[in-house]
Design goal:
The protein is α/β, with parallel strands linked by helices. The protein folds into two domains: 13-71, DNA polymerase, domain 1 (Orthogonal Bundle), CATH 1.10.150; 76-351, TIM Barrel (Alpha-Beta Barrel). Helix content is 34%, strand content 20%. The protein contains eleven helices and 14 strands. The strands form three sheets. It has a ten-stranded mixed sheet. Strand 12, helix 9 and strand 13 form a beta-alpha-beta unit. The longest helix has 15 residues, at 142-156. It starts with 12 loop residues before the first strand and ends with a helix. The chain binds S-adenosyl-L-homocysteine (SAH). S-adenosyl-L-homocysteine binds next to strand 10 and strand 12.
């Protein structure tokens, strides 16, 4: 039986989602010399070519065959919002099928990070998040996750040092494509990003955290916790109806034990909802003894909900309380506060035509 490759939205084989072995098989099937696979992989993932015309050492006849039988995904830049406070840039990209997604470029003292989306929309339903308001449209292909990074590298001319899968979508709800994306991004024949420089953030799909732990990768796991007891978490995050905090934390512990990678817990501070002294105390009890960092971020208000961010002094007080229990805490700088910074806001504004 013929091997099944990943198809792009035009139903052709998705060239950029093939790993090097699959590319070799395809090249062999076209009666082309094997070394073409390596050349092609390099054009796709190292030089990150925008099209066949850039591939100067690939013969025209092969390019024509590829163009006929394969899909070459690429993103079109629809809009770039640039922050005037820092160098954050928010990109709105159109996919080949016309769907739009967003990605963020962030420049820190220690280097450049890109935050990518893993799905068009999201079906997790977190109450404070703009990405999920209209549900999920579809999963992104491995190539489309890579394309966000490659396009931003090209547009900015910067070397991308870190990648976080923290944009729209739930990466562990698109598990197979995520895994393939990780393998391609960190392939030594490709862009060769160190696995330690990649972070995947999840709302806590327990079976898939455990699966990821068993892949024995060295990528970082971030868990969106946002509450310190099940009752409050259920009010903010529907996934909490499926998995209790204790089940999620057990899965995170298993992830740490199998990979040795430090865990990050994300906690968006919502005024009067999850930022009280009692919340800080409960959170300290939950996380004490774990090798973890808590990332506090005042919630970014979206107009569809009336959640308000905890103010600066409240956030610092919350941090101090956790630190008393010897928990590592950072208050995340809100990058690009003057642009549509929170997940899914830019896309949503675009879809609503304002
Ligand atoms: N689905 C994944 C990754 C996407 S969101 C996850 O849930 O982790 C990345 C982070 O931003 C998550 O912690 C998410 O809960 C948080 N987030 C989403 N909307 C936000 C908002 N309006 N303000 C603050 N944090 C938000």
């Amino acid at each position: 039986m013929e091997k099944e490759y990943i198809l792009a939205t035009d139903n052709k084989i998705d060239l950029k989602s093939l790993d090097i072995d699959e590319l070799k098989e395809c090249i062999k099937g076209m009666n082309e010399p094997a070394f073409r696979a390596k050349q092609l992989f390099e054009w796709l993932h190292v030089k990150q070519a925008g099209g066949y015309d850039e591939m100067t050492n690939i013969p025209k006849s092969l390019k024509e065959k590829l163009a006929r039988d394969f899909s070459f995904t690429s993103l079109e830049v629809v809009e770039v919002q640039e922050s005037h406070i820092d160098e954050t840039k928010k990109f709105l990209f159109a996919l080949s099928d016309g769907n739009v997604i967003e990605s963020v470029f962030m420049k820190y003292r220690f280097g450049v990070s890109v935050c990518i989306s893993s799905q068009v929309g999201c079906r997790m339903g977190c109450k404070f998040c703009a990405s999920t308001l209209d549900g999920v449209v579809r999963n992104l292909l491995p190539s489309e996750m890579l394309d966000q990074i490659y396009s931003i590298a090209r547009y900015t001319g910067e070397k991308i040092g870190r990648v976080v899968v923290m944009g729209s979508g739930e990466p562990l709800d698109n598990y197979d494509n995520l895994l393939r994306f990780i393998k391609l991004l960190t392939d030594e024949n490709g862009m060769n990003l160190g696995q330690r420089n990649l972070t995947v953030s999840t709302c806590g799909i327990v079976p898939n955290i455990l699966r990821l732990a068993d892949e024995r990768l060295s990528i970082n796991l971030a868990l969106s916790l946002h509450a310190s007891n099940d009752q409050k978490r259920k009010e903010l995050m529907p996934i909490a109806n499926k998995y209790s905090i204790s089940e999620v934390l057990d899965a995170c512990k298993a992830y740490f034990e199998k990979t040795g990678r430090q865990l990050t817990f994300e906690y968006s501070l919502v005024a009067g909802v999850n930022d009280t002294e009692e919340d800080a105390r409960e959170l300290s009890a939950l996380l004490s003894g774990l090798n973890a960092v808590v990332n506090l971020i005042p919630v970014n208000p979206i107009k569809e909900r009336d959640f308000k961010p905890t103010d600066r002094s409240g956030a610092v007080a919350f941090k101090n309380k956790l630190e008393k229990s010897r928990i590592n805490v950072t208050i995340r700088r809100e990058m690009g506060r003057d642009i549509d910074g929170a997940c899914g806001q830019l896309r949503r504004r675009h879809l609503q035509g304002n």
